[in-house]
Design a protein that fits this description.
Layout: E1 15-16, E2 24-25, H1 31-36, E3 39-42, E4 59-62, E5 64-65, E6 76-83, E7 89-94, H2 104-107, E8 110-113, E9 116-119, H3 129-139, H4 143-146, E10 149-153, E11 163-166, E12 169-174, E13 179-183
Antiparallel strand pairs: 1-5, 2-4, 3-4, 3-6, 6-7, 6-10, 7-8, 8-9, 10-11, 12-13
Length: 184
């Protein structure tokens, strides 16, 4: 998963990083990571130390804000709580939007399980039957118990929580109209 293009406005006074040496790929975040650090910032353009590989547009590090997190400060993913169709709850993360763009393509909600991540926004790559079966296996449920999924950010944000509803795995069909297709 590559984050959308965002012009990052770095303002050190708005917060700080803890675990400054911790770097991960966003698609490798675990439940333990999200429980320890509910906010992760993308490190776009950060130079790695000599010989250090794996820093790219998917690299994140823990971030701690001194008050409500302002998504305009830089690009983040924040812990979120997901409520599945059967009422069960799971954790994951989403990207808080800039300037009120709360489309699912911007929020890109992802459920994190003990065995891996389940992307609900698929971009232009529709999941095939094998990927769907793997996702339901990770969730430990079938489509009827999963969708529709509601989610809400679990971090104090400037402007209030981010919320969304996902009817199924979403695939972008048209960039201009933002038309999507639902796959279950």
């Amino acid at each position: 998963m590559k984050p959308p293009s965002v012009t990052a406005c770095l303002k050190p006074a708005c917060g700080g990083s803890q675990g400054a040496r911790v770097r991960k790929q966003v698609y490798e975040l675990t439940l333990d990571d999200l429980n320890q650090f509910p906010v992760w910032e993308f490190r776009l353009g950060e130079e790695g130390a000599a010989g250090e590989a794996g820093r790219d547009e998917c690299t994140v590090r823990p971030y701690t804000a001194s008050g409500p997190l302002d998504p305009a400060d830089r690009m983040f993913v924040v812990r979120a709580v997901f409520t599945l169709a059967d009422g069960s709850r799971m954790q994951g993360y989403c990207t808080p939007p800039l300037r009120g763009d709360d489309s699912l393509g911007t929020l890109q909600p992802i459920i994190v399980t003990d065995r891996g991540q389940v992307r609900l926004w698929c971009g232009t790559a529709a999941p095939d039957s094998k990927r769907l079966a793997h996702n339901y296996e990770l969730l430990g449920k079938d489509a009827g118990h999963v969708f529709p999924v509601r989610f809400e950010s679990d971090v104090k944000l400037v402007g209030g929580p981010v919320r969304g509803n996902v009817p199924g795995f979403l695939v972008l069909e048209d960039f201009q109209t933002r038309k999507t297709r639902t796959v279950v």
